[in-house]
Design brief:
about 25% strand; five-stranded mixed beta sheet; Ribosomal Protein S5, domain 2; 4 helices
Length: about 130
């Protein structure tokens, strides 16, 4: 099997992954994913696409993560893994789509507008 690469995104986080057959080793920015994502919730979020498709421990993953926060990066990685699994086997798509892994979460922070305090908050209005 050749190396499959995909991209996953969430907010401003971008995960570029390279998947090949192996023993299930996940390396994120040259570190083990359990070291990179210290909380069990984020670790579960990363491996959840494997749990859904029963492919745990079959592929080695090399990940380059950039931007965003820790949670956004974990969800971007899950998105990229799902896309890679669908490239490997098209039959996984309905399972992953039902769990919401195939959809990129488009929500992002709204930009601050000039003449205002924040994106929506205004300066206090004074009549006189």
């Amino acid at each position: 099997m050749e190396i499959i690469n995909t991209i996953g995104r969430r907010k401003t986080a971008v995960a570029r992954i390279y998947v090949k057959e192996g023993q299930g080793k996940i390396t994120v920015n040259d570190r083990d994913y359990k070291e990179y994502f210290p909380t069990p919730i984020l670790q579960f979020k990363v491996v959840e696409p494997f749990e859904v498709t029963n492919t745990m421990g079959q592929y080695d993953i090399q990940v380059n993560l950039d931007g965003g926060g820790v949670r956004g990066q974990a969800e971007a990685l899950a998105h990229a893994l799902s896309r890679a699994l669908v490239k490997i086997n098209e039959e996984y798509k309905p399972l992953l789509k039902a769990k919401g892994f195939m959809t990129r979460d488009p929500r992002m922070v709204e930009r601050k507008k000039f003449g205002q305090k924040k994106a929506r908050k205004r300066f206090q209005f004074s009549k006189r």
